[in-house]
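Chain and backbone:
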Amino acid sequence: MSTTRAKRSDARGRIVETAERLFYAEGVRAVGIDRIIAEAEVAKMTLYNHFASKDDLILAVLQYREEQVDAMFARAIERHLKRGKDRLAAFFAALKDWFESPGFRGCSFINARVELADAAHPASQFSAEHKERFHAMIHQVIADTAGAKVADAVSDAVALLVEGAVVTSVMEQSSQPAKVAEQAALALVAKAKRR
């Protein structure tokens, strides 16, 4: 890779990582481009060479955030599986870990969708697509634990429990909603298994 291309890639990475940190902490609308430029230590032209608009940057940040969230959940689930939990219990333990992480401010995708208030915005659409992928992951976790038939019967309800736990955790500044959601999910799974 040429030095120029490496510098461009490095600058783009700094911009995205800086914007992700600021957007998550303060919101996509509250943080301006000038602040991102200053904290990423890039020139305004550098930012606009990579992103035609703030909206393009918001979308890139959410794409980056999805990679980070997916990797975080995969690592945490694997860690809890090694401790002897089944996949569903490991998922909820990972959820609790996330709620207890420093600077936890809920779901970036829910936050962005609410802030943007435009369902047609590309970042809003990506957020909705992310939720579909996240819910599919929950379905797979349940299927791995209790079978596909049970997952088909309860995964939508469990996904709602998880989303509610995320919001409630932010509102209460507590990780307890992960445990409440887990208990309700286990009851749903047990009931579906009896059918």
